[in-house]
Design goal:
Blueprint (H helix, E strand, L loop, with lengths): L2 E5 L2 E4 L4 E8 L6 E8 L6 E6 L6 E3 L7 E6 L4 E6 L8 E9 L10 E2 L3 E6 L1
Parallel strand pairs: 2-11
Antiparallel strand pairs: 1-3, 3-8, 4-5, 4-9, 5-6, 7-8, 9-10, 9-11
Amino acid sequence: QVQLVESGGGWVQAGGSLRLSCAASGFTFSSYYMSWFRQAPGKERDFVAAISQRGGLTRYKDSVKGRFTISRDNAKNTLYLQMSTLKPEDTAVYYCAAKSYSWGSIGDMNYWGKGTLVTVSS
């Protein structure tokens, strides 16, 4: 059974940091590109960051470049998102997602987690 389980969300003041984790099971994690998406209240889900199978390539939404870092540990089947200098506009439910053998897009990810809420207060 495939599972993606996010953790690490919570409440933080603006300027603070959080690290999200996504524990994967039930599929060959190292064969999948992994991504983080987020959905703010009243808005559509959108892309945040992605990482290639071995971690050598990464992509970021412009507004998080320099503040967020995506990484993965294939030995632990875990994806991470280190978030720093958080802003109120980063408040959202954060989801991890997996796509086999390519970057994929929001519409064709193979697997999704259920999300973890990040709230940034001003």
